[in-house]
Amino acid sequence: MMKRLSAIAIATAALAAPMLSHAESTTTTPAQGPTPGPASTATAHVDVTVTVPAVLYLRVGTGNAIGAANNATVDGMTFTVPAANLGDSTVVNAAAGNGDLGSGAVTVRVYSNLGDVSLNSSVAGPLSDGAGDTISWNQISVVGAALASGTTGFTNAAITHPAFNTTAGGGSGTATTLTATSKLARFEGKWTYSYANGVVVPAGTYGSTVANHGRITYTATQL
Q1: What predicted TM-score, i.e. pTM, was given to this entire model?
Q2: Overall average pLDDT of the 66-82 stretch
């Protein structure tokens, strides 16, 4: 008898289970008669929820699309000063293959759906040759411009490059603020790097490695 009662209880619970779901239904009984009565209605509801993740995205140079896997490629900039122009302020452009756009130009793209964004640069100190000689970061110029072809939904324009910290100890530079519209910050452009060549320095290779302070770190910060 106990086994039979248990089976009945399980069957009853199974029939009642659908009543616990979020679906809804209503039954009405319209008035009946020889002539049409007032219009009757039955109602039901559905609750809709959409969850949008918070995203902060920064690309400088080679990179992947927003939401894609991170891209660890670090673009390099190489400036070779002609022997005839040592320190004479003749601007030296980067090598043709430098940057994802070539000739020292890189793509810059920032996206945030949380509001304004601060964009800054950071260096570890002056460019060094590892032998005690240095070149100040004020000799590296970065000019902003619009991309040749923009992305739908983004503001394609010159993004002000955050000025480098030129002190002996390096550190964060002067940040650029990107102002959001309706909490959306969507900006893109390009930066082109060059060497001012305004000082005469001993022969050598300056920067190039992290140890010789050749790396620039860019940081996007949600405001």
Answers
A1: 0.82
A2: 95
